[in-house]
């Protein structure tokens, strides 16, 4: 489909979905975002749903301003994917050992490594910029400095919630590795600190929603946030790079005879800010649950833990600010999913997938998400599908 345009106070709201299918609270959030004086454009992806701070599946383009709550607390959250040389024929009949080995190598939930994981541990992993990156930790907000040891030890860890590691087949039976994670606790604490600062600024006192508090250009508060934001986005990228290196190590050890090879990594943020130019204006584009889909750029659009995921190539649609959805998108909240579904439902909906099937992950059940095929159909003018994947192992945070 092409987009549907709805009126907004400052800019129209371009929606790549049927507005009637969007819950009222999410529509109100979008209307509120469109009232901001700094906004120059608002695009809404087909995985849209209500979110804390701002609507998930929204692309907010502003001039000389950025909203920290719209970026959210998982700064730089995103995905990585790698195609391997393994096929279905290389796999053992029982996948539980492989899942256990992945869980041993990569801490999940609030876990961290006993000692820091660094790029020099892995042969051939690019290390350029690593020392400079950690050197810049001195320049982040004083409020989080005491978290340095935890930040170092959480580098290369998964986190909780909807974060995961998956092994999947493509349509030809080739094995892919994917993972989904962000900037861990350090990103969360940086975000919460800056959201608190923004909400106290005088120019934000008359807003319709306090979560829409912004930093504006040429102020010390904006400079401080931009510094910490871009550092946390870099942390998230390194985090995924190191996790993927750990995952490859597990695959090499478990499939020694097959001597697995790996293609170059595809990586994309889906909660972040980028400086981009549209219609002759330099804008700060916040993708809240959306990936960049510039012409020819590779991206990853996952379904849920029992459905298909997609490797895509962007079509460079500027009406969507070169963006696409970041996944299927939730159709019900975590609490609603826990009330509605049981572990038996989870077992049925994840049949054939080696994964947790306990009450702790019922809120991640496929039934809590929108149908990924429908989401993909609605963004045919944003991306083209390169590969369709189906998981056979899923490690949840």
Structural write-up:
The protein has 397 residues and is an alpha+beta fold. Helices cover 27% and strands 26% of the residues. The protein contains ten helices and 18 strands. It has helices at residues 24-33, 68-71, 96-105, 130-135, 148-154, 184-199, 220-254, 334-340, 343-349, 372-377, and strands at 4-6, 13-15, 39-49, 56-62, 65-66, 78-87, 164-169, 174-181, 215-216, 266-269, 271-278, 281-288, 290-292, 298-301, 308-314, 323-325, 354-355, 383-396. A hairpin with a 6-residue loop joins strand 1 (4-6) and strand 2 (13-15). The chain starts with a strand and ends with a strand.
Mean pLDDT equals 96
Question: What is the percent of helical residues?
Answer: 25-40%
Radius of gyration: 20 Å
The helix-strand sequence is EEHEEEHEHHHEEHEHEEEEEEEHHEHE
The class by helix and strand makeup works out as alpha+beta
The counted number of beta strands is: 18
Mass-distribution shape: globular
Largest sheet: 8 strands, mixed
Taking pLDDT < 50 over at least 5 consecutive residues as the criterion, the unreliable ranges are: none
What is the helix tally? 10
Percentage beta strand: 25-35%
Please state the oligomeric state of the protein chains shown: single chain
What is the first-to-last residue Cα distance?
34 Å
């Amino acid at each position: 489909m092409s987009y549907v345009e709805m009126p907004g106070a400052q800019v129209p709201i371009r929606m790549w979905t049927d507005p009637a299918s969007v819950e009222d609270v999410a529509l109100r959030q979008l209307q509120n975002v469109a009232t901001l004086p700094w906004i120059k454009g608002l695009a809404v992806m087909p995985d849209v749903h209500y979110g804390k701070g701002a609507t998930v599946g929204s692309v907010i383009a502003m001039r000389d301003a950025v909203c920290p709550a719209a970026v959210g607390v998982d700064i730089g959250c995103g995905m990585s994917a790698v195609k391997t040389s393994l096929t279905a024929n290389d796999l053992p009949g029982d996948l539980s050992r492989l899942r256990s080995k992945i869980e041993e190598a990569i801490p999940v939930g609030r876990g961290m490594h006993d000692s820091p994981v660094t790029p020099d541990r892995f042969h051939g992993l690019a290390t350029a910029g690593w020392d400079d990156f950690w050197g810049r930790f001195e320049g982040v907000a004083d409020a989080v400095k005491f978290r340095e040891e935890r930040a170092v030890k959480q580098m290369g860890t998964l986190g909780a919630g909807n974060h995961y590691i998956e092994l999947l087949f493509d349509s030809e039976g080739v094995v892919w590795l994917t993972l989904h994670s962000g900037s861990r606790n350090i990103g969360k604490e940086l975000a919460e600190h800056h959201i608190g600062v923004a909400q106290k600024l005088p120019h934000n006192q008359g807003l319709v929603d306090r979560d829409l508090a912004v930093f504006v250009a040429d102020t010390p508060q904006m400079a401080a946030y931009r510094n910490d934001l871009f550092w946390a986005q870099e942390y998230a990228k390194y985090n995924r790079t190191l996790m993927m290196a750990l995952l490859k190590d597990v695959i090499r050890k478990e499939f020694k005879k097959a001597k697995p090879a790996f293609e170059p990594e595809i990586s994309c943020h889906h909660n972040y800010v980028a400086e981009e130019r549209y219609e002759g204006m330099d804008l700060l584009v916040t993708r809240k649950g959306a990936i960049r889909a510039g012409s020819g750029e590779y991206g990853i659009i996952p379904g849920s833990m029992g459905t298909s995921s997609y490797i895509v190539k962007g079509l460079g649609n500027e009406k969507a600010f070169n963006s696409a959805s970041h996944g299927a998108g939730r159709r019900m909240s975590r609490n609603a999913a826990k009330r509605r579904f049981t572990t038996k439902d989870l077992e049925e909906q994840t049949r054939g997938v080696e994964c947790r099937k306990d009450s702790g992950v019922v809120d991640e059940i496929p039934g809590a998400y929108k149908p990924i095929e429908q989401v993909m159909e609605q963004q045919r003018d944003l991306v083209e599908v390169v590969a369709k994947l189906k998981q056979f192992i899923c490690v949840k945070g």
